[in-house]
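Subject: Protein record for review, amino acid sequence with backbone structure tokens
How to read it: Take the token row as a discrete description of the fold.
Enclosed: The protein record, placed directly beneath this head.
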Amino acid sequence: MDLAKAVILGIIEGITEFLPISSTGHLILTARALNIPTTEFLKSFEIAIQLGAISSVIFLYWRSLLINLEIIKRLLAAFTPTVIIGFIFYKTVKKFLLGSVNVVLWSLFIGGALLVLFELAYRERKGVTEELSGISYRQSFLIGVFQSLAIVPGVSRAAATIVGGLILGLKRKTIVEFSFLLAVPTMLAATMLDLLKSAPAFGAQELIFIGTGFVTSFIVALFSIKLLLYFIKNHNFIPFGIYRVILAAAFWAIF
């Protein structure tokens, strides 16, 4: 790892965090392409810089996160299943799944195909939930269950929550924004849990790498969020599903 690679990984994270293509999967594949060894530090780095991208949500949506009590309560309901499942499987995921290229590629490929099939079949129903404060606690909790699927690298937290929200009767823009906001407590908890366990073993240089990736992902994610909100006004997620399948096939062929 060096500063240049930390910046590259930060850019990849900022671009992919809120898209239904798996930021964790892209970080793992990028690290493999750059010949960065799969160490415990790299795994912690990949988790920590995701918080940089998530911080852009706090910057853009701080009113909803700090002032709107109705939205906060729904985020807590959605966060509950995620934190329970994440705490139970944290050690297993970090030891056996995080860093596994094969797991990422299969998740990208299968998830991409399912995303395309879902979008081809999906038709927005009448009476969909259009306001964040109109999301029920039941819907919120179930969205959290869908998000928990992203504990497997390559699944994509954004894809799981967005598809789950569409199935549960939310308008596309509404579930995309809810997915943004839900990422804040989810990634904050994941990062704090990991750093509490791992940070004491890191030296000053490693902390500089984490800081560099954090700041880079924050800046890039500000633009990524705006672009995604613009994109979904007139498009579905089929292009992202196709991209996932092509990426997995290309990586298999090349590496």
